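Write out structure tokens for Rieske domain-containing protein.
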Amino acid sequence: MPLIPNAIVNEQINLTNIQYNALRRDNGYVYLKSGVKGIILIHRTGDTYAAFERNCPFQPYDDCALVSMDQSGFFMSDSCCQSVFDLNGYVTGGPSPYPLRRYNTALTGNLLYITN
């Protein structure tokens, strides 16, 4: 089983920026153009955030191996292989044997740092 390629992630975002308005509510999310195929950044509650690689771990070298948030906002999925992941990045359905790659998040004031 091929592994997701590595990419250096060292992002700093200002949460007061209008493009991150969705992160002001619990379980709000945005897509970032970092990582291998992008990052899904989710605001949990309070000062807690989670950042996941969008490259699906099932067949990561397939062009269509891209995880997105479901319209319901309750889970993430890859429309290519049909893998489904909960909001903690764990597999809940489909062929993926691995959870999503998770990146570190740290909040300092209004600045959120995302690193690996």
